[in-house]
Design brief:
This protein is an alpha/beta fold. The chain has six helices and five strands. The chain has one domain: Hypothetical Protein Ychn, Chain: A (3-Layer(aba) Sandwich), CATH 3.40.1260.10. Helix content is 34%, strand content 14%. α1 runs parallel beside α4.
Length: 173
């Protein structure tokens, strides 16, 4: 077996690497209210704040459950119709399976020293993240400002969200 050595390309043939612009602002749309879908947006926003990046969170549709006083401490993992559960749908529908799956996830998060959702919301708020509820979803689900945790800055429209997200990288979860 022989090894072949190739000559490097001439500099004039190599395109320059474009300069990377640092991320200054992320806006996260949280649209789902299950335990396993609440954490990705919260963790990404927290990582942004820890990196000195501005973070805006917009809770819409079932994502409102993440910031609603009545539901924030009772989020669960959906076991039916969740292909990532790796269990047959029939088993996922058995009584108590959602509770078991939710407790397992909570224990795993605790082992990793990841705070509960309510505490994550408090951490984000304390770090300067901006939390907003979607006006249309609030109207649709008949929720009022009083239903929300105090860390929510305001209830705004989708157009207001885009105004607040000017120049941000927008993430939809």
């Amino acid at each position: 077996m022989s090894t072949q050595i190739t000559e490097p390309r001439a500099e004039e043939n190599v395109a320059p690497t474009p300069a990377r612009t640092p991320i200054e602002h992320v806006s996260v749309i949280v649209s789902k209210g299950t335990l396993d879908m609440a954490y990705p947006g919260l963790i990404l926003a927290n990582a942004a704040r820890m990196s000195g990046i501005d973070a805006t969170l917009f809770f819409t549709f079932w994502g409102l459950d993440v910031i609603t006083k009545k539901s924030i401490d009772h989020l669960h993992v959906a076991t039916v119709g969740n292909p990532s559960m790796h269990i047959p749908t029939m088993l996922g529908g058995l009584p108590g399976m959602e509770s078991v799956a939710s407790e397992v996830m909570k224990k795993q998060m605790e082992k990793l020293d990841i705070p509960p959702v309510r505490e994550m919301i408090e951490i984000l708020y304390d770090s300067g993240a901006k939390l907003y509820a979607c006006q249309m979803a609030m109207d649709m689900f008949k929720r009022t400002r009083e239903d929300l945790v105090p860390q929510v800055e305001d209830v705004i429209s989708a157009m207001d969200f885009f105004d607040k997200s000017e120049g941000a990288q927008v993430l939809f979860i």
